[in-house]
Amino acid sequence: MSVTTTVHLNFRDEAREALEFYRLVFGGQVVAVTCGQAQAVEHPADTDRILWGEVRAENGFHVMAYDVRENQTYDAGDRPFFVSVRGEDAEEITGYWKGLSEGATIMTDLGPSGWAPLYGMVKDRYGVIWTLDVAVPYAG
Hints:
Layout: E1 7-11, H1 15-26, E2 29-34, E3 50-56, E4 62-67, E5 82-87, H2 90-101, E6 105-111, E7 119-123, E8 129-134
Parallel strand pairs: 1-4, 5-8
Antiparallel strand pairs: 2-3, 3-4, 6-7, 7-8
């Protein structure tokens, strides 16, 4: 039996748009189910909100997202989490960086770092902070 972990992002009325954006950057398919489709509407404002959504790509990328419902508090905060994308191919990582950087705030330019030949941090247009780097083996 194997176990995986998947980042689950929380939004308020931006989950569908964010999932489509991540699909454009990483490829794959979007699946999104609204509260209305699932017959799980507790407040009229929730009808078109995403109850369950994901992007899954053949390259291994997988992220989930939903829209926080009307009766739930929501505060994205300043830095509640980072999404880390690691790969072995600098060209692939650079491509993801270029996609995520559109309309974003660059926090650390993509370039060499003390732990990776290529590393960068970007806050995308939805406020999600991504770290991207080329993974290297650690001497231990």
